[in-house]
Amino acid sequence: xxxxxLAIAFGNQETKAQHTEQISVEKAVDKLTNAMLTAxxxxxxxxxxxxxxxxxxxxxxxxxxxxxxxxxxxxxxxxQLQIENQSIDIxxxxxxxxxxxxxxxxxxxxxxxxxxxxxxxVWTKADGSWKLLARQAFKLP
Length: 141
Known about the structure:
By secondary structure, the protein is α+β, with helices and mostly antiparallel strands. The chain is built from 3 helices and 6 strands; from the N terminus they run H-H-E-E-H-E-E-E-E. It has helices at 2-38, 41-47, 64-72, and strands at residues 48-55, 61-62, 78-91, 94-107, 111-126, 129-139. A 6-stranded mixed beta sheet has the order 2-1-6-5-4-3. Strand 4 and strand 5 (111-126) form a beta hairpin. It is globular, with a radius of gyration of 18 Å.
């Protein structure tokens, strides 16, 4: 009987830890979204891993420096962003986030445009905080 109680207690602690990490990843995604909306160079840099691979739905891929500069410089402008249908799977220090990203962009020379793309984010936990390691956007039908 005591083994069953111990197993249940351990399972509850593991579930609680998993839930805490999931909330932590959700907050990192929210910070990233806000940093993209405000073109906050410091926040974008802090959230991104030095090994970031940032893939656009067009096929263009940027490293950390290029990703931060594109948004912070105003070359890519997000006026509105919403996340829908988000799922988060965590395995140790890695989190995979999937969602649909909708909103509006207004890039110089292109003008306003509606945005609706699928996103896969890979986050890694380093020094107690989640860092964006990879992002791939893809066109939705």
